[in-house]
Amino acid sequence: MRHSFIEWDEGWNFIQRRMNKLNRVIEGLSETPFDAEDFMMLYTTIYNMCTQPPPHDYCQQLYDKYKETIEQHITLKRLPSLTEKHEEFMLQEFVKSWERHKVRVRRMSHCFFFLARHFIPSRSLTNLEEVGLNCFRELNLRARVAAFSLIDREREGERIDRGLLKNVMGIIVEIGTEKMDAYKEDIEAHLLKSSGEYYSRKALSWIAEESYMDYMVKAELCLRRERNIVSHYLHSSSEKKLVEKVEHELFEPLANAFKQKVSLEVKALVQQAKDDASSNQDFNGAYGMQEHVLVRNLLELHTKYLAFFSDCLIKNYIFHRALRDSFDLFWNGPVAGSLGAELLAAFCDTLLKNDGNEKLSDEAAEDTLEKVAKLVSYMSSKDLFIEFYKKRLIPRLLFDRSSNLEREKSFVTNLKQKLGGTFLTSRIDKMVEDMTWTQDNKTSFLEYLHSNPNVNPGLDFTVTVLTTGLWPSYKPFNLNLPAEMKTCVEAFEGFYETKTKCRKLNWINSLGTCYINSNFESKTIELVVSSCQAALLLLFSDADRLSYSEIFTQLNLDHDDLVQTLYSLSYGKYKILLKEPNTKNISPNDSFEFNSKFTGRMKRIKIPHLPLYETKEVIKEVEKDRRYAIDAAITRIMKKQKVLDLQQLFVECVEKLGHIFKPDIKTLKQRIENLIDRDYLERDKENHNIFKYLV
Amino acid sequence: MKKMRRSAIKAANKELERIDVFFNTYANMSSGLIDPEGIERLCSDVEVDHTDVRILMLAWKMKAEKQGYFTLEEWRTGFKAIRVSNKYALKKALPELEKEVRRPTNFVDFYSYSFRYCLTEEKQKSIDIDSICELLNIVLRSQYQAQVDLFVQYLKTQNDYKVINMDQWMGFYRFCEEISFPDLSNYDPELAWPLILDNFVEWLREKQTQS
């Protein structure tokens, strides 16, 4: 029985001889064809070698040898024949080799087919055809070098054989598995890298030589060409990656240069304003001429560069970011962004106030405010701006200092659009709406008074109705109104009832403004005072001299409020009342007399009260709001995601809150710890970087 | 066999009885608990200070819930586990107990227990800085003297925190365990260390550059 076994050497020698013949036939070197008999002999031998009992079954060896044979053929025959050719010729050879390779693999795998019956499936090995085709990957390196050199030549403007490149790429896609690993690893990854290097070199030389405009034109051309390259011979899946890579390499250096340039300009403007401010070296939120000029200059700068983008066809976020960052210096303040926000809000105030130092036409004001809105949309601390804006809006609206309600309204609408979403603007929006209601009802109130002459107090007066909750909570002064004012209040209450139902009016006397004609000895002067001041002054129309206690009982004001009111009228610039004795403090034993000798150059005098705001307080308020916003964002995100690590949570928070402000990681950590304390979150026991949501 | 089992049960019962008797020597008769005064007496009997870490370890072993008090139930749990039923045996058993607690697997549990043990009020979640410093000295100083000393120094100079919560407490232990000291080379502030440790590290680095 022994002689019937085929020993390995013997069998393999036989197989090799036949295979050599097959090779010669495929290369067209053999006169005699590889016929059915050749095939049968080969197949049978392999069959026998596979079915002999162990240790004479040679399945594994044959499988290995099959691969080795193909590999050898590639390295010994195909590789040298490629190496001696260059560029197009090499690629042509590559394509030709591939066609033959496919035939060779197909025919060889037929001969070895018996392996595919049992051996390969039972071991879950790669099938014969794929093993064979994969061997060709060995040549990809050569093809890549040649192909890339062609691509570079095309980038430099030469005409190349695109059809050939398309064939080559097609082959490389075909070699790999369905995931196109051969293409992705051997071509795409290298292409992205070399393209990146190519364009980063270009960018470097253009930055030095070209104007921004020419640079942009060139960059656009390059991008179009890269898209072309993809559509003509690369696989379509590469387009996005390649374009992104090239965009990055071309635009990033330009954006940096741009940012540097703009930052310098911003810095120069800020420095100039500082130099002009002779008294204070640093800005502290006080708003004077140099601040005004600074904001105006910065607005122009911002507008100029915004326009620059649209002219250059670029709506690229890289540049928008660069523009935003280059204004950083301006935004800076005690809290990131607070100074710029404050100055910008003050700037708006000058445009919207009736006695602002800017007297602009409607059109010019609109135009400037449009620029402001655009600049605000570039800020990262939008909430700070809105808060400062509100602080200045309130006195404008309440003390009738706004030049034009329409202008107020249109700016708020504009802001709402630019900031995307109503979260930040809804309050100021509704405040302006309250004013609109008042204005709209002015005429109908006059009509009401006209048709009800019995309630008409015969005084000129308007009432502003504020929605509770929207405005800061003001102190409702405990004040006995003089009879004249009381009739006004009653008249309006009667009117208001006809307009709405089930609504109660609370009168905030501290916010009232009265115009009183006061007959002094020399002339009559109109005094603009608060309701309290007015009520106090009216007491003196019946008496020349009043003691503190008399005033106290008649007005029914709190002691502190009364002192403050008396103080405003008897100290300071305008001494309407004379105090007896003339000391620095007001005490319950003092008495007051109307200063009939008072005189002044003006016909109208405004007696000041309420201070505007404290910067620190505003910032504190905003920080509090931010804490709430961060808490809400964290819980919302965690409710959805359940488990996140700190970095992921941070990214999501920035995404969620970015349109209001940019949270910093320290505050975020603080809020997370607070939420842990309140049992909303817990830290993972194993990985302390991970947080879990607790239901 | 039966006899043996019976005698074993008998012995166990006797042991329990002895533990109960031991309990009653310190318990306050009216409340049925061992109160702070009883603990004081126990400490002097076994000749340790009442702030000694081993008393805290004993409480841990008993799973005692309320600071300064032991219930009979807790007493039984603890002394059955360490097989002790009189003060002499207890005195002898203490070093062994300390060894057991210092084993890393037990120590984390003990460390977090020691924090919970100090929460005396209902819904209390954090402990004031002074008590925390004291607790750190008792619990952790023998292992991480340098870290504890500096942290205590930091806690007493800063103004941001008036109390410490469990998360920060556990964070500091992890800090001692994981962070190479004093160079702090592997401290990564990007990770979710409690903020107080970020600040502590900042303070340390500043201190180091100054000296």
TrEMBL record, chain A:
One example GO MF annotation: ubiquitin protein ligase binding
Gene Ontology BP terms: protein ubiquitination; ubiquitin-dependent protein catabolic process
Keywords of this entry: Isopeptide bond, Ubl conjugation
Keyword Ubl conjugation: yes
SUPFAM superfamilies for this protein: Cullin homology domain, Cullin repeat-like, Winged helix' DNA-binding domain
One GO cellular component term noted in the UniProt record for this chain: cullin-RING ubiquitin ligase complex
InterPro entries per record: Cullin, Cullin-like_AB, Cullin_homology, Cullin_homology_sf, Cullin_N, Cullin_neddylation_domain, Cullin_repeat-like_dom_sf, WH-like_DNA-bd_sf
All copies of domain Cullin family profile, residue ranges: 339-570
Database matches in Pfam families: Cullin, Cullin_AB, Cullin_Nedd8
Family: Belongs to the cullin family.
Protein name: Cullin family profile domain-containing protein
TrEMBL record, chain B:
Record's GO cellular component terms: ubiquitin ligase complex
Family annotation (InterPro entries): DCN-prot, DCN1-like_PONY, EF-hand-dom_pair, PONY_dom
GO biological process, one term: protein neddylation
Pfam families: Cullin_binding
Gene Ontology molecular function terms on file: cullin family protein binding; ubiquitin conjugating enzyme binding; ubiquitin-like protein binding
Record SUPFAM superfamilies: EF-hand (SSF47473)
Residue ranges occupied by any DCUN1 domain in the UniProt entry: 14-205
PROSITE patterns according to UniProt: DCUN1
Function: Neddylation of cullins play an essential role in the regulation of SCF-type complexes activity.
Protein name: Defective in cullin neddylation protein
Source organism of this protein record: Prunus persica
Origin organism lineage: Eukaryota, Viridiplantae, Streptophyta, Embryophyta, Tracheophyta
